[in-house]
Here is the input.
Amino acid sequence: MKLATLKSHGLETAAILHEGRLFCMRDVNAVFGFTYPLGLLEILESGQLSKLVEWYENTGMQALNALENVSIEEDVAIFAPLYRRPRKIWGIGLNYREHASDLAEHPPAVEPASFMKPDTSVIGHGDTIELPLMSQKTTGEAELGLVFGRQCKNVSKSEWRSVLAGFTTIIDMTAEDILRRNPRNLTQCKSFDTFFSFGPILYTVDEISDISPLRVSTVINHTVHATNLVENMTFAPDFLVSYHSRIMTMLPGDIISSGTPGAAELKHGDVVECHIEGFKPLVNKVIDHKVVQAN
Here is the structure.
């Protein structure tokens, strides 16, 4: 199942993506007599995602085909972030060996280089990444996102998929010059407003039987800057889910941004994209406040 959040009539509402059309949850509820929450995070928190997926797979796909008159074409839909207030966002640094070598860094060998980001950094597909006045060099990094679907603690590697709602595309930003001045400033360099874009689609776990062969690419101005396969991560998704669940209780809607194949420096006017094979691309334009201020 593919889920999104749309901007519609001044609200942000969850929607089902089916055959190129989006069906808002308020319309699905009205037509079928359901009472699902209207927000995607609220659907996850309510524990009703599995019930919604079951309906979609059994009868929902055919039923939605008859509701074209209350749907929105994917090409004209205005997407929001999947949700704006995840309780936790974990980022993973240097998780592809090639990326670490590009930065002249040694990749972590025993434990992942984890950091956390605030929800005030969240934006979505089509929104603008704002390069801050405090940074002279900001990079954008395409990543595969792991989205938790239920509360969990001490998850085994073999059970990692059972606690996830699904997967999505992410563009993470880093004020690299701040990080270079002082590696202890990792929180600062990762936490500026607009420094975490995710969505536009959540692909539920059942949609993807094996994520290992997926190719993740950082694309700048329609040119691939860096690319790699999920199977080449130093710490695979099953390890990341298990490891972080041993640190703290993970909650529905929590996110692990699993690392980038390569970061690209962002400039005023750039368009940065996260491409993952089989996923709808995540696309954001860039403005630099230093350029805007100078003009």
Summary: The two ends are 46 Å apart (CA to CA). The mean pLDDT is 94.
